[in-house]
Amino acid sequence: AADKINLIPQDFFAELCEQIIQHLNHKIPGVNTAELCQRIQTSGIEINVSDLAKIANIVSFLFSTAARNNLSTEELVTTLGNAVSTLPKHAVHVIRHVWNEQGKSISVSEDARNMATVGQFVDIKWKLGVAMSSDTCRSLKYPYVTVTLKVADPSGQITDKSFEMTIPQFKNFFRQFKEMAAVLETV
Asked: Which of 56, 99, 105 is nearest to 75 (CA)?
């Protein structure tokens, strides 16, 4: 991963680290590596989303472990120097700066450590479509709903999950949401 970190310009790496700290502080649901990767690629750097996601996981693990062990900035940098000699200097500089500025704000409560690892819902988009025909059927006129869920997994990576439903399936889906809303009203 160190060779991939070398590719990322310092300002993008700093933005990645800032987003990770915000995620660890529960201020944002996750790190949108797809959007950040697209911006890095637009600037002319060849990197793919999976490599950026791996880097985000490593830095997230680094920050959360440092927070759990109450490491000072110097202890973190010393540990980094001992463990990872191949880490680029600009990355160490960014990590030092971000940790010095915001590292102590990471709250690692006992509840957060023991919490089950589940994803977090971020956004939902839907669209109605009609299948007009296929190679085996000339006239379908079959309506369907396509739903795209944006979800942050426990590590903070934001991904899109898409699925299609028939109209009866969508009505059942909608009914279940109404039931959830009714239960939430009583809480």
From this structure: 99
